Amino acid sequence: MNTKRFIIASISVFVTFLVLDFLVHGVILSGTYAILQGVWRSDMNRIMWMMYLATFVFSFVFTWLFVRGYRKGEIMEGLVFGLVMGTGMNIMAAMGQYVMYPLPGAMCVKWFIFGTIEYCFAGIVASTVYSD
């Protein structure tokens, strides 16, 4: 593993997740979230740093897993990796949220779709930045 490329790729994946999370949750789904205001924690903004920390750590895990299976450094390799990871992670998250909380099924489907798309972009970024 090339440590320098790994660190740069991991940070790039982190930034990708931050930007796409803002677009998805801060822009696209903001209207839906406003309707469900009573479901969210009242102190969520105060502890949001935990989400950023989790995303930062996960970006390194995501990139490490990608690098472990790294073959050619092609964009398609990153896309497929992101699709597999995104499908696995988001089906668990979206279904779990739907089962545990009184959330509209349509929102959980959107979380699954947008989340999987985010992972696809993260995989593309990992493959592009880490490639030789």
TL;DR?
The protein has 132 residues and is mainly α. It contains 5 helices and no strands. Helix 1 runs antiparallel to helix 5 and helix 4 (75-100) packs antiparallel against helix 5 (105-130).
Description:
The structure is a single chain. By secondary structure, the protein is mostly helical. Helix content is 79%, strand content 0%. It contains five helices and no strands. The protein has helices at residues 3-28, 30-35, 49-68, 75-100, 105-130. Helix 1 packs across helix 3 (49-68). The N and C termini lie close together (11 Å).
Please provide the count of β strands: 0
Shape: elongated
Stretches with pLDDT under 50, minimum 5 residues: none
**Range of strand content:** under 5%
Summed up, the helix count is 5
User: What do the pLDDT scores average to?
Assistant: 92
Helicity level, as a percent range? Answer: over 70%
Radius of gyration: 16 Å
End-to-end Cα distance, whole Å, is 11 Å
Biggest sheet architecture: none
* Strand/helix succession: HHHHH
Structural class: mainly alpha
Task: Compile the SSE list and pairings.
Layout: H1 3-28, H2 30-35, H3 49-68, H4 75-100, H5 105-130
Helix pairs in contact: 1-3, 1-5, 3-5, 4-5
Descriptors:
about 130 residues, mainly alpha, about 0% strand, elongated
